[in-house]
Amino acid sequence: MAEQNRLDGKVCLITGATGGIGLETAKALARLGATPLLVGRDPGRTQAAVAAVREAAPGATVESFLADLASLQSVRELAAAVRARTARLDVLINNAGLIIDRRQVTVDGFEATLATNHLAPFLLTNLLLDLLRASPSARIINVSSQGHRLARLDFNDLQSERGYDGIRVYGNSKLANILFTHALAKRLKGSRVTTNALHPGVVRTGFGLNSQGIFKHLIKLGAPFMLSAERGARTSVYLASSPEVADVSGQYFIKCRPVKPSSAARDDALAERLWQVSAQLTGVQT
Ligand SMILES: NC(=O)c1ccc[n+]([C@@H]2O[C@H](COP(=O)([O-])OP(=O)(O)OC[C@H]3O[C@@H](n4cnc5c(N)ncnc54)[C@H](OP(=O)(O)O)[C@@H]3O)[C@@H](O)[C@H]2O)c1
Fold it and tell me: How high is the mean pLDDT of the chain?
């Protein structure tokens, strides 16, 4: 990567850094000189990820935090631990995500996909905004998916109690990622903090492999045609480091290029409504 993309001294928090796209993103950022702060939920996998990043970028400062993003309390504790570690955050990559084929409920009583994929990044980002504002120029990157095009967001059944289709629920959460990016970019206008969303490609990772049924089989069948995790990390790394996007905010990227997301994802009123509901559910003051 070009010299102007160097991230020397930049502090970058990456969720879902224990494998797949998140781990490769952390490695790439460390190679560019950044200090990656890895978030994982399992101590063993998180330590292994730290070791893998150190091996990929010898000499890099690499640290980690443990958090279960399916719990609001754990997200709050994560934000507090990050604040205790650093007064400034230059890059936040909300990358952790999952798809679940049977409805599960979190400790907070929320449907688990919505909680992990949307409410967690919503809360974490809001709790860390002042650290991001303390950076001379900060970037918030939300890993979404083309799966957002399958969404049918129903505010009367946000917790999918009336019927559960794992792919649809995942699509809803990924639409929420783009709507969040949209509403956040509006709030950050005129500041030195940008935010963008992205689709990483169809990538060979651990994603979906814990599900049963047709989805898991489709992934296994498609695996030879999928991108490597390293390639899947490219757009995240581009958005975190390229001077080309220093002033770009509120956009959705595929293959390092801005692309129009679905019409729902560009709906101002929908983005505002989701923001208000998410703030209420997570206790964020707006
Ligand atoms: N792979 C694709 O083709 C594809 C396509 C479009 C979008 N995406 C998006 O890309 C992102 C990364 O996915 P991936 O493909 O790299 O999948 P992955 O290999 O399954 O990695 C997902 C990461 O999220 C973490 N995670 C899941 N639930 C968590 C929780 N409750 N608390 C903390 N961490 C949690 C996992 O931690 P553990 O190690 O503890 O499980 C793991 O580090 C996701 O947001 C996904 O929606 C992927």
Answer: 96
Within 6 A (CB) of ligand 1 lie 16, 18-22, 40-42, 45, 68-70, 95-98, 116, 143, 145, 199-200, 202-203, 205-207
Global pTM value: 0.97
Question: By alpha-carbon position, which residue is closest to atom 1 of ligand 1?
Answer: 203
pLDDT tens track for 46-101: 999 999 999 999 999 999 999 999 999 999 999 999 999 999 999 999 999 999 99
In the chain, domain spans:
3-280
What tens digit of pLDDT does each residue of 162-200 get?
Answer: 999 999 999 999 999 999 999 999 999 999 999 999 999
Atom number of ligand 1 nearest to Cα 170: 47
CATH superfamily of 3-280: NAD(P)-binding Rossmann-like Domain (3.40.50.720)
Torsion of CA 231, 165, 97, 152, to 10 degrees: 80
**Nearest 5 degrees, angle CA 268-CA 273-CA 276?**
125
Which residues, including other chains, have CB under 8 Å from residue 152's CB and lie 6 or more apart?
168, 171, 172
How much distance in Å is there from the Cα of 51 to the middle of ligand 1? 19
- Identity at 140, one-letter amino acid code: I
Whether 170 is a known active-site residue: answer yes
